[in-house]
Each structure stands twice: as C-alpha cells, then as structure tokens.
Amino acid sequence: MSQNATSAVNTGRRTGLDRDDMVAAALHLVECEGPAALTMRRLAAELDVTTNTVYWHVGSRDELIAELIRSCSARMAEREISGETPQQRIISAARNVWDSAFANRAVTSLAHQTGTTALLEHPLEVALAHEIEAAGLTGEEAAFALRSILSTVGGFLVGALRDESAIPTDLRTATLWSRTDAGLDPATVSALSGPTDHALIFVTTLEAVVTAHIPA
Amino acid sequence: MSQNATSAVNTGRRTGLDRDDMVAAALHLVECEGPAALTMRRLAAELDVTTNTVYWHVGSRDELIAELIRSCSARMAEREISGETPQQRIISAARNVWDSAFANRAVTSLAHQTGTTALLEHPLEVALAHEIEAAGLTGEEAAFALRSILSTVGGFLVGALRDESAIPTDLRTATLWSRTDAGLDPATVSALSGPTDHALIFVTTLEAVVTAHIPA
DNA sequence: ACCTGAACACCGTTCAAGT
DNA sequence: ACCTGAACACCGTTCAAGT
To answer: What's the pLDDT at A14?
Structure first.
C-alpha cells in the first residue's frame, strides 16, 4: 500500500514505520474490510514489510489488537450526555454506549471477538457510573445498577450488530420462525419472521431497566 | 481414539463411521476441550481417519457445526416451565434459556461464535413464545416482548459465559475499574473491581423487563 | 460409495542472520 | 535498533486416485 519515501526496495533496515503506524494500518484494515481481514500477514503486506517487522513493533496479534482497541477507546468516548433528571441522563449515557458501538461496528465486533469489549467501552462506562452516582447510588448498589444496564445494552448490541448476511439463509432467525409450526398464532409467527427494529426494543427495554434500578 | 473393529489398518475403505459418529465425536471434543478444539484435522485424528473422510460425511466445518447445534437443540429444550401467573411462567421460560446455556456452556459458546445461537435456542424460544401468548399477547406485540426478553437474556449470558481467565489480567473488567481514577466514590470503584454475581443481576433485571412488557 | 495421499492457500509465531 | 528469509506447526478445503 504505502511505499517508502527512500526510493529503493526494502532491503536491510529502516522502513520509517513505528508502532503507531502499525496500529493505524490495522484500524484501517478492520474498518475497510472487517475484523477477519486483520491478520499479521495481511497487515504486513499492506505496509510493504515482512510479518517480522510487524512483530518487532507490536509484539503479537493480541497486543496489536489491545493497542488498537485502546486507541479507539478514547475517541469513541467523546459523546455528550443530555437530560434533566438522573434517570434521563443515565439513559442518555447508556445510549452513548449503544450509539458509539454502532458508529464503530467493525472495531466493536473485533473487541467482542477478542474479549476486549470492557477495554473499548470503559471510558463510556465511567461516564455512566458518574451519572449513576449523581442519582444517589454508590458502592454495591451503583455497581449492581451499572452492570445491569451494561448487560442490557450488550445483549441488544449482540443482536443488532450480528451480520445475518454471513449466516446461511436456513439458519437465520427469521427463517427458523417462518418454519415454526408449534401451535402459535400465525400473526405471531409472521411478526417473528419479519425484520427486527433493534433500536426500538432497545430503548423501550432500557427505560424499563433504568426505572427498575434507579430511584426517581 | 477409537480403533476399527476389523483388525487391520485403515487402508482403502470402510471405517464403519457415519455422519452421526462425526457429530458425536465433535460434541465430545467441544465439551471436553472447548470450542477451539473443534478443528477438522483434530476431529479426524480423534476418529482415526483422514480429514477427507470427515469432509465426505459432513460436507464442511460449517455444516458439521450446524448439525452439532441442531442435535443439542432438542436435548437442551427438555425443561419444565413453572409458575402460576403468566408473568411467572414467562420468567421461568426465560430462565430455562439461561439455565440451559449454563449447563451447556461449551456448545453455547460455539453457537455464539458461529452465529447459530438462534438455531440452538429455538425450541426454548418457542416455549417462551407460547407463554407470552398465554399472557394475552399476539402478533407484533408478542414478537416485541419475546425479542426484548431474549436480548436481555443474551446480554447477561455474554457476560456470564465469558472466560475471564483467557483474557490478560490487565484487560479484565475488574482490573480496569481498579485502576480507574475519575472522581468516583471509592466504594463504587471497589465494588466494580470485585466479582460479579451474574445470576442475581440477571434475575432482577429479567423481572423488570418482563413486568414492563407483559400485562399483569 | 467410501476412503486415502498429496497438495493449495492460508494462519500466528519464532529463529538465525543481516545492516 | 531494526529488518529480512526461512522455517515450524497449525488451519479449511479440494483434487486425483484407489477399492
């Protein structure tokens, strides 16, 4: 992809690339072609170096990904919290987690696959924690509310970010329901065979969860 | 692992194995050594055959996994629903999804990684759908309630089934919170740095979601 | 119909060697 | 300090060939 400024071929040393360039190229790869495209060999090819050069700078694939997630973490946290009441502000903060995940779905999927979701969302979670404390909860109570809300967000995100097009037609949720014949109302089966408005059910459920955990 | 009954070495034809044996061995592998252990080569070695033999019987890795999930699906659905009121029975049915996922966490993780969760849980979802209809909801209303409840279950499952020991210490949720210094109450930070009682927050939140979506 | 040997095109990672 | 060539031990999958 990028050629060396110093005319000649990459023989010997000095590519002019550093760790940050590796991470930047990795992010570019993930956002353009998805998490699966991020392989060490592919990244090396993109940078016109050997895989070993990548290894020298980033250590390993896991470290590269951790660094990538870390670098996105701060950027994704730049979101405003709105609302008058504590409950409204908590809902707003939780929606920020949802919105930022959607705005960066490739990176979010990568984090999810590699178990680094907590790292990616931590700044947004801290913001949410502040709003929960502002509502009057601390300690175990605050932790309980935060974890409940975050799990709720996570559940809807998994459903909403799942790439159904990558799944064979006959294994898709809608297909499974359309083939269901277990004495359910045809209208119910029909509704379940159609598309899902993830954002709508998320917001509705989020309000219920927040109302249940946060004193008015 | 298993040797041929017919004395000699596997030269030529007839291993005496069929598609079901492949699926059974795959299940055994997943349950004993986790989803990552399920590779075509590993499975072939376990059965004392060539990878091609596996391919001949199951088609591909994706088909093998789909078949594996399908075979677990029915078995995992054998759960009773208890409770007097519609709400109680819905909560019971939702807990069955949770309980069966825990009882079969290796297979559940595999399904989750391969996008076949819907296939695995479908019978339990059908049972839940029946209880929702028994509560008086049909069509879009029933679908809305079902999807909300299932997403909620899914969110808590992701958190509860995640293998934290596979994540480097400094990327774990607890570690991230213990290092957080953003003006939060020390008691809150301390609580968030400790272990999570997934089952407790799940049950509490589930009740809130069900109450919000199902008329009493 | 059922199975093997050999190969293709990938992975992550490491070692010894070069400048 | 920084980079390459070559290799190791894996993947999923396919092709031609055997019985």
So the answer is: 77
Is B6's pLDDT higher than 90? no
Contacts of B193 in chain A (CB under 8 A): none
| Token duo for residue B161 | 């089934």
- Among candidate residues B64, B73, B186, the one with its CA nearest the CA of residue B114: B64
- In order of their start, the domains of chain A are 3-59 (1.10.10.60), 82-213 (1.10.357.10)
A88-99 CB burial, b ≥16 within 10 A, e <16:
ebbbbbbbbbbe
pLDDT at A6: 35
Name the band, by pLDDT with cuts 50, 70 and 90, for residue A94: very high
Indicate the pLDDT class of residue A51, thresholds 50, 70 and 90: very high
Judge whether residue B1 has pLDDT over 90.
Answer: no
- The nearest CA of chain B is from the CA of A151 a distance in Å of 5
Residues, CB < 7 Å to strand C: A 12-13, 38-42, 51-52, 55, 60-62; B 10-17, 49-53, 56-57
CB atoms < 10 A from the CB of B115, how many?
18
Q: B167, A114 in Cβ contact below 8 A?
A: no
Residue A60: what residue type?
Answer: S
* Position A5 confidence tier, pLDDT thresholds 50, 70, 90: very low
DSSP letters along A149-200, please? HHHHHHHHHHHHH--GGGS-GGGSHHHHHHT--SS--HHHHHHHHS---HHH
